[in-house]
Each structure stands twice: as C-alpha cells, then as structure tokens.
Specification:
The chain has 494 residues and is of the alpha/beta class. It has two domains: 261 residues, 3-Layer(aba) Sandwich (Aldehyde Dehydrogenase, Chain A, domain 1), CATH 3.40.605.10; 192 residues, Aldehyde Dehydrogenase, Chain A, domain 2. It is 38% helix and 20% strand. Strands 14-15-16-13-12-17-18 form a seven-stranded mixed β-sheet, with helices on both faces. The protein has a six-stranded mixed β-sheet with strand order 9-8-7-10-11-19, with helices on both faces. Strand 17, helix 14 and strand 18 form a beta-alpha-beta unit. It is globular. The protein binds nicotinamide-adenine-dinucleotide (NAD).
Length: 494
C-alpha cells in the first residue's frame, strides 16, 4: 500500500477523524478539541469530545458484537489477529507519523512502537490457541470436574499517552483473541493516533462492534465505561491517582491496573560503571522519560557516585533533542504542559534544596515549543526531595549517594511505588539476594529498569501504588478469561 499524505504532513488515514462505533465512523458531538503537535504548539486536527450517551451506544454495540464473537472458534479468532498484524505491518510509516506528530517521540521510535503492535497481535494469535483447562480429581466418585476458560464480555479499556499504540495493543489483541469485545477510550492528547490505528484495524476486516473507539475526556467517557453495568471488566493503564478512582468506580469488576512507578536503579560499589551509566541514561531519557518503568532515581554507593554521575552527564550531553520528524533526533518534546510543568518543578525544587545540576535543567523553547526539555542529571539529591519520592515522568536522572548496601536497600524499599527496579553489581549472587527483598513487580539485574518484552509479565508489586495484575503474553490472556468449573456425571465401567 502506498501512503498518502495530505497538507500539513498528516496521512489521509486521519483526514476525517471521529468515533468508531458498531463498525461506523461518526461525529455527532457538540463539543470538540484541538489536537496539538507538541513540537510546534500548533493545532493539527480537531476531534470530538464525546458525551456519556455516545459511550453508552458504544457499550451496546460491543455487547451485540461480543454475543456473536464469543461463539467463533478460537482458531478463527487467532486468524483475525494474524490478519490485523499484517495490516499493521503495511501501514507502519503512516501510523508512526501521526504518533510522532501528536505524541512527540522521534519517528524511528514511533516506527518501532507500531511494528511492535503487529508483533503483539501475532503473539496473542499464537498463544490463545494453546490455552488449556483442567480435569480435576473429585472426592465424589460419580462427578467429573473440568474447568474451561470463557471470555469475560465487554472490556472497558482506557489508555495513556506515552505509548499510545503499544499500550492499547496490550489490551485490544488479547481481548479479541479470547472472545471479548472492547470499548476503548484513549488519552485525549494522543487520540488522533488512536484514530489512525483504529482505521487500520477496521479496514483490515474487524467485525462490526468488536472494538469501539470513543474519544473524549477520561472523567466523562472513561468514567462512563468504567462504571456502566454494561461493561464486565476493565483494563486501565495510567496514573496511580486515576487508577484508584477507577478501582472505586468499577468496584466489583475484574481489573487490570497498570499504574505509575518511580524505579530506583541501585548501583553497588562493585558495578561496571560504564554499563550502569548507559542503563541510567537509556532508562531516563528514552521517550523523554515518559515511561512508567523509567529510571526515576539512581541510588549509588557513595564510593562510586561521583564517577557514575560524570559518566551519565556525558551521555546526557550526547542526546540530540529536537524535531521528532528529523533523522538523528533522539529526544523529542514532552507530550503536554502538565508533564513539562511537573518536570521543571521537581528539578527546580531539588536545586533550591541543595542538589547539584550536572547537565540540562532547563526547557528549550528555541527548538519550537515550550515542551522541549533538556536531558538532565542532578547529583547530591536526598531521599526526602520530591524528585526522589514522586514519579517525575520527564528526562531527568536524580542521583542519590548512599553509604553501603543496607542504606541502598532501605531507600529503594521506602517508596509508595513498586513497578520496576534494577540492581547493578559485579556480584550477581548479592544482586539476586537484593532482588528477593525489593518490593517491585520487576527487578532487572545489570539492565535498565525499562527492560521489557511483550510476552513477559509486567505489573506492580502488591501493596504499592503501581497497580494490580500482570500484562504480557499468556498473563493477559488468562486475566481476560474467567475459569468456569463444569461438573458432569460420570460412571465407572466395571
Ligand atoms: P492519567 O491517569 O492522567 O490518564 C490515563 C487515562 O485515564 C487517560 O486516557 C485519561 O483520559 C483517563 N482518565 C482520566 N481520568 C479518568 C477518570 N476519572 N475515569 C476514567 N478515565 C480517566 O495518566 P497519563 O498522564 O495519561 O499517563 C501517565 C501515567 O501512566 C504515569 O503515571 C505512568 O507511569 C502510567 N503508566 C503506567 C504504565 C504501566 O504499565 N504500569 C504504562 C504507561 C504509563
């Protein structure tokens, strides 16, 4: 397929954007909002701000589709996922361009994200075919007890703006593979790329109503799909604060909640400092730091903290911040004003309280908009500073020098968050022992906090603000189905 680009550089794929409900594109909304390119500050499109009534129609459409879809054999559901994967493969440049222009990440990274979405559909097609139930022994001799997995029904899926194609794929692909239907509300600041992605899936032959896209404010249409009794389960990725509200509003429904993090990277005195520095820079600057598993803070043994900080600062200086559509750009702008303000506040407050700035520490409006922020390295950060305690979600490495393993562990564990952590050490046995004591869903030894693959279990540690459940591979497929126990009579021939 040859990509066509209209004026302004947007592909025709998004030339008449709207909601997608019951297999039809529509815009019946009274209110609209502009789509802003964060690299220029300019409006590039306009999208409907949908009403609760629209979300309710989408739920009804999903319910109708799901009743039929749940009866489609799993091999056919898997075949659809493969077809969707091929369609995504063909449209990578177009979808990636919208992603880059709306979210702000460099085009090459956007291409990688869209390609990965095709992999996600293919992986779910493979795995779903081999899900199994059980035959269980029973005390009662004349009962045969089996378990089978059934779809949950209509999924309410709400997604954030930092990976606006990959994160939706983590829900949409396993949901339809297992026989569910979906109503999807994407984040408003990346809703145009949701339209592009939805159009690719729709044009590839998605059955009407199986995935419905509703654009608008989370507090309005997101809340509707969470609380409405017509949805049966929830998939949510976003902040801890919104996750908590969703848990309350959707109480009683099965939920996958993938929330925020503030990943510590622990660097022991015996670590390879070049490897650790690269991991810290990669973990904090990738996607301009707007990653839930980002390296939010580096806890470094005091004996090596200074040398490590210098190495990370050198890597920060090598980042090419600029237009995401330019080849060679490694960091684009932040996506929106809220995250830019939080990043600047965290950095400025830390400096005012005694942290030392080794690199960056300022916005770069000369690059095209106020949302560009330099790759930043701070040292002499203390654990009580806001930048150390809260999720920053910007391109910042705060380094906290500490004395010895006991202090490193105490500070790493003293957090509300528990998504991804990492330990750097030349002594893998000690690192492994530390991993066992950390309160996180993921611990990477001698690798960045951001290490991730689509089939691996991803999620927050229990009792933390980072969420509940595991996303990835068979874990999502299992979460999106419910086990039904069926018992039947049996006779033993003798
Ligand atoms: P957010 O919580 O502000 O918004 C997430 C989504 O929720 C958006 O689509 C928004 O419109 C919607 N929403 C807002 N209020 C709502 C309400 N009352 N009811 C229903 N929906 C509502 O988060 P964000 O700023 O878009 O994303 C960044 C956050 O997401 C960070 O905290 C990041 O760590 C987290 N995140 C987590 C993971 C993970 O896998 N754990 C992955 C990516 C991002």
């Amino acid at each position: 397929m040859t990509a066509k680009y209209a004026s302004g550089g947007l592909p025709e794929l998004v030339s008449s954007p709207g909601n997608f409900i019951g297999g039809a594109w529509e815009d019946r909304e009274a209110a609209h909002s502009d789509v802003i390119n964060p690299a220029t500050g300019q409006a590039i499109s306009r999208l409907p701000k949908s009403s609760r009534a629209t979300a309710q129609r989408a739920i009804a459409a999903a319910a109708k589709a799901q009743a039929a879809w749940s009866r489609i054999p799993v091999w056919e559901r898997a075949a659809l996922c493969v077809k969707l994967a091929s369609a995504i493969d063909e449209r990578v440049p177009e979808v990636a361009r919208v992603l880059s222009m709306e979210q702000g990440k460099p085009l090459a990274q956007a291409m990688g994200e869209v390609s990965k979405a095709a992999d996600g559909f293919r992986m779910n097609a493979e795995l779903v075919k081999y899900m199994t139930g059980e035959v269980l022994p029973a005390e009662t001799p004349d009962r045969l007890v089996i378990t089978r997995r059934y779809p949950r029904g209509v999924y309410a899926v709400i997604t954030p703006w930092n990976f606006p194609v990959n994160i939706p794929t983590e829900y949409l692909a396993p949901a339809i593979a297992t026989g569910n239907a979906v109503v999807w509300v994407p984040a408003p600041s990346t809703a145009l790329v949701a339209v592009a992605f939805m159009r690719v899936l729709a044009e590839a032959g998605l059955p009407d109503g199986l995935i419905n896209l509703v654009l608008g404010e989370g507090a309005e249409v997101g809340d509707e799909i969470v609380a409405n009794p017509g949805t049966h389960a929830i998939g949510f990725t976003g902040s801890a604060a919104t996750g908590r509200r969703i848990a309350e509003r959707g109480a009683g429904k099965p939920m996958l909640l993938e929330l925020g993090g503030n990943g510590p990277m622990i660097v022991r005195y015996d670590a390879d400092l070049d490897t650790a520095a690269k991991a810290a820079a990669g973990g904090a600057f990738f996607n301009s730091g707007q990653v839930c598993a980002a390296t939010g803070r580096v806890l470094a043994d005091g004996r090596i903290a200074g040398e490590l900080a210098q190495k990370i600062a050198k890597l920060a200086g090598a980042e090419h911040v600029g237009d995401p559509l330019h080849q060679g750009t490694t960091m684009g702008p932040l996506n929106n004003q809220a995250v830019a303000t939080k990043t600047a506040d965290h950095v400025n407050e830390a400096v005012a309280q005694g942290a030392k700035l080794l690199a960056g520490g300022k916005s770069l409006p000369e690059l095209g908009s106020d949302l560009f922020y330099a790759a930043t390295v701070l040292t002499d950060v203390t654990p009580d500073m806001r930048i150390a305690k809260e999720e920053t979600f910007g391109p910042v490495v705060p380094i906290i020098p500490l004395e010895g393993d006991a202090e490193l562990m105490r500070v790493a564990r003293d957090t509300d968050y528990g998504l991804s952590m990492s330990v750097f050490s030349g002594d893998v046995e000690t690192a492994m022992a530390m991993a066992g004591e950390l309160t996180a869903g993921i611990v990477n030894i001698n690798a960045s906090t951001t290490y991730w693959e689509i089939h691996l279990p991803f999620g927050g540690g229990s009792g933390t603000k980072s969420g509940a459940g595991r996303l990835g591979g068979r874990h999502t497929l299992e979460a999106m189905t419910e086990i039904r126990m069926i018992t039947l009579p049996q006779r033993v021939l003798c």
